[in-house]
What we know:
This protein is α+β, with helices and mostly antiparallel strands. The protein has a single domain, classed as Lipocalin. The protein is built from three helices and nine strands. The chain has helices spanning 2-19, 30-33, 92-100; strands at residues 35-46, 49-52, 59-64, 69-75, 102-112, 117-125, 134-142, 145-150, 158-165. Strands 1-3-4-5-6-7-8-9 form an eight-stranded antiparallel β-barrel. Strand 3 (59-64) and strand 4 form a beta hairpin.
Amino acid sequence: xxxxxxxxxxxxxxxxxxxxxRGEAVAQTAKDLVGTWTLVSITREQDGKKxxxxxxxxxxxxIFEPNGRFSIMFIRSDVPKFASxxxxxxxxxxxxxxxxxxxxxxxxxxxSEADHTLNSHLEGSTFPNxxxxxxxxxxxxxxxxxxxxxxxxxxxxxxxxxxKRAK
Length: 167
Protein backbone atom coordinates (compact mmCIF):
# COMPACT_ATOMS: atom_id res chain seq x y z
CA UNK A 1 0.00 0.00 0.00
CA UNK A 2 2.84 2.38 0.87
CA UNK A 3 4.43 1.66 -2.54
CA UNK A 4 1.20 2.64 -4.31
CA UNK A 5 0.88 5.91 -2.36
CA UNK A 6 4.54 6.66 -2.95
CA UNK A 7 4.15 6.00 -6.69
CA UNK A 8 1.07 8.24 -6.89
CA UNK A 9 2.82 11.07 -5.03
CA UNK A 10 5.91 10.76 -7.22
CA UNK A 11 3.86 10.66 -10.43
CA UNK A 12 1.82 13.67 -9.31
CA UNK A 13 4.97 15.64 -8.54
CA UNK A 14 6.41 14.82 -11.94
CA UNK A 15 3.19 15.71 -13.78
CA UNK A 16 2.76 19.01 -11.96
CA UNK A 17 6.44 19.85 -12.25
CA UNK A 18 6.53 19.21 -15.98
CA UNK A 19 3.16 20.51 -17.14
CA UNK A 20 2.45 23.49 -14.93
CA UNK A 21 4.07 26.82 -15.81
CA ARG A 22 6.95 28.00 -13.68
CA GLY A 23 6.63 31.18 -11.63
CA GLU A 24 3.50 33.08 -10.78
CA ALA A 25 0.33 32.25 -12.68
CA VAL A 26 -1.06 34.96 -14.95
CA ALA A 27 -4.66 35.94 -14.30
CA GLN A 28 -6.92 37.66 -16.82
CA THR A 29 -10.34 37.96 -15.21
CA ALA A 30 -12.51 40.99 -14.53
CA LYS A 31 -12.29 40.19 -10.81
CA ASP A 32 -8.47 40.35 -10.96
CA LEU A 33 -8.64 43.72 -12.74
CA VAL A 34 -10.91 45.45 -10.20
CA GLY A 35 -9.18 48.13 -8.15
CA THR A 36 -6.92 51.15 -8.49
CA TRP A 37 -3.66 50.98 -10.41
CA THR A 38 -0.80 53.49 -10.64
CA LEU A 39 1.20 54.00 -13.80
CA VAL A 40 4.74 52.63 -13.96
CA SER A 41 5.49 53.27 -17.65
CA ILE A 42 3.92 53.81 -21.02
CA THR A 43 5.89 53.24 -24.20
CA ARG A 44 5.05 53.66 -27.84
CA GLU A 45 6.51 51.38 -30.48
CA GLN A 46 6.66 52.59 -34.05
CA ASP A 47 8.77 51.14 -36.85
CA GLY A 48 10.61 48.95 -34.31
CA LYS A 49 11.61 51.93 -32.13
CA LYS A 50 10.35 52.35 -28.53
CA UNK A 51 9.89 55.75 -26.90
CA UNK A 52 8.43 56.99 -23.62
CA UNK A 53 4.97 58.09 -24.70
CA UNK A 54 4.43 60.49 -21.77
CA UNK A 55 8.05 61.19 -20.87
CA UNK A 56 10.49 59.37 -18.62
CA UNK A 57 8.46 59.62 -15.38
CA UNK A 58 4.80 59.55 -16.37
CA UNK A 59 2.02 59.81 -13.84
CA UNK A 60 -1.30 58.07 -14.14
CA UNK A 61 -4.08 56.16 -12.54
CA UNK A 62 -6.51 53.51 -13.74
CA ILE A 63 -9.61 52.63 -11.76
CA PHE A 64 -11.72 49.57 -12.58
CA GLU A 65 -14.88 49.19 -10.52
CA PRO A 66 -16.71 45.89 -9.97
CA ASN A 67 -19.83 47.36 -11.65
CA GLY A 68 -18.02 47.55 -15.02
CA ARG A 69 -17.10 51.24 -14.97
CA PHE A 70 -13.55 52.56 -15.41
CA SER A 71 -11.45 55.70 -15.75
CA ILE A 72 -7.85 56.07 -16.93
CA MET A 73 -5.54 59.08 -16.84
CA PHE A 74 -2.00 59.68 -18.14
CA ILE A 75 0.03 62.85 -17.46
CA ARG A 76 3.60 63.83 -18.33
CA SER A 77 5.44 64.72 -15.13
CA ASP A 78 7.20 67.63 -16.84
CA VAL A 79 4.18 69.62 -18.07
CA PRO A 80 4.97 73.21 -17.04
CA LYS A 81 2.64 75.16 -14.78
CA PHE A 82 0.65 78.02 -16.30
CA ALA A 83 2.28 81.38 -15.53
CA SER A 84 -1.15 82.97 -14.94
CA UNK A 85 -2.17 80.26 -12.42
CA UNK A 86 -5.51 80.23 -14.29
CA UNK A 87 -6.32 77.21 -16.49
CA UNK A 88 -8.59 79.36 -18.69
CA UNK A 89 -5.81 81.91 -19.35
CA UNK A 90 -3.01 79.67 -20.62
CA UNK A 91 -0.84 80.79 -23.48
CA UNK A 92 -1.04 78.81 -26.74
CA UNK A 93 2.25 77.10 -25.79
CA UNK A 94 1.02 76.24 -22.28
CA UNK A 95 -2.26 74.86 -23.66
CA UNK A 96 -0.41 72.80 -26.26
CA UNK A 97 1.94 71.33 -23.64
CA UNK A 98 -1.00 70.48 -21.35
CA UNK A 99 -3.03 68.92 -24.16
CA UNK A 100 -0.20 66.89 -25.63
CA UNK A 101 1.07 65.95 -22.18
CA UNK A 102 -2.11 64.30 -20.91
CA UNK A 103 -4.84 61.88 -21.85
CA UNK A 104 -7.89 60.82 -19.86
CA UNK A 105 -10.90 58.69 -20.70
CA UNK A 106 -13.73 56.85 -18.96
CA UNK A 107 -16.65 54.55 -19.65
CA UNK A 108 -17.61 50.91 -19.26
CA UNK A 109 -15.53 47.76 -19.63
CA UNK A 110 -15.65 43.99 -19.84
CA UNK A 111 -12.95 41.34 -19.89
CA SER A 112 -12.77 38.46 -22.34
CA GLU A 113 -11.04 35.65 -20.51
CA ALA A 114 -10.95 33.56 -23.69
CA ASP A 115 -8.77 35.97 -25.67
CA HIS A 116 -7.22 37.91 -22.74
CA THR A 117 -8.60 41.29 -23.75
CA LEU A 118 -10.02 44.34 -22.05
CA ASN A 119 -12.97 45.65 -24.05
CA SER A 120 -14.03 49.20 -23.27
CA HIS A 121 -16.68 51.63 -24.43
CA LEU A 122 -15.40 55.19 -24.06
CA GLU A 123 -18.14 57.56 -22.95
CA GLY A 124 -15.74 60.50 -22.69
CA SER A 125 -12.15 61.35 -23.49
CA THR A 126 -9.83 64.36 -23.58
CA PHE A 127 -9.03 63.12 -27.12
CA PRO A 128 -12.42 63.93 -28.72
CA ASN A 129 -12.04 61.34 -31.50
CA UNK A 130 -12.30 58.57 -28.88
CA UNK A 131 -15.66 59.68 -27.44
CA UNK A 132 -18.25 56.97 -28.08
CA UNK A 133 -15.62 54.56 -29.43
CA UNK A 134 -15.17 50.91 -28.52
CA UNK A 135 -11.59 49.83 -27.91
CA UNK A 136 -9.79 46.60 -27.22
CA UNK A 137 -6.52 46.11 -25.31
CA UNK A 138 -4.47 42.98 -24.75
CA UNK A 139 -4.66 42.32 -21.00
CA UNK A 140 -2.00 40.71 -18.82
CA UNK A 141 -2.19 40.57 -15.02
CA UNK A 142 0.53 38.92 -12.98
CA UNK A 143 0.28 39.44 -9.24
CA UNK A 144 0.16 43.20 -8.65
CA UNK A 145 1.27 44.11 -12.19
CA UNK A 146 -1.09 44.99 -15.02
CA UNK A 147 0.02 45.38 -18.64
CA UNK A 148 -2.28 46.80 -21.29
CA UNK A 149 -1.26 46.75 -24.95
CA UNK A 150 -3.03 49.04 -27.40
CA UNK A 151 -2.22 47.96 -30.95
CA UNK A 152 -3.43 51.38 -32.24
CA UNK A 153 -2.57 54.31 -29.96
CA UNK A 154 -4.05 57.82 -30.15
CA UNK A 155 -0.89 58.92 -31.96
CA UNK A 156 0.87 56.37 -34.18
CA UNK A 157 2.17 52.90 -33.54
CA UNK A 158 1.24 50.70 -30.59
CA UNK A 159 1.32 51.63 -26.91
CA UNK A 160 2.09 49.45 -23.87
CA UNK A 161 1.24 50.68 -20.39
CA UNK A 162 2.46 48.95 -17.23
CA UNK A 163 0.67 49.52 -13.92
CA LYS A 164 1.13 48.49 -10.28
CA ARG A 165 -1.80 47.84 -7.98
CA ALA A 166 -2.22 50.78 -5.59
CA LYS A 167 -1.77 49.87 -1.93
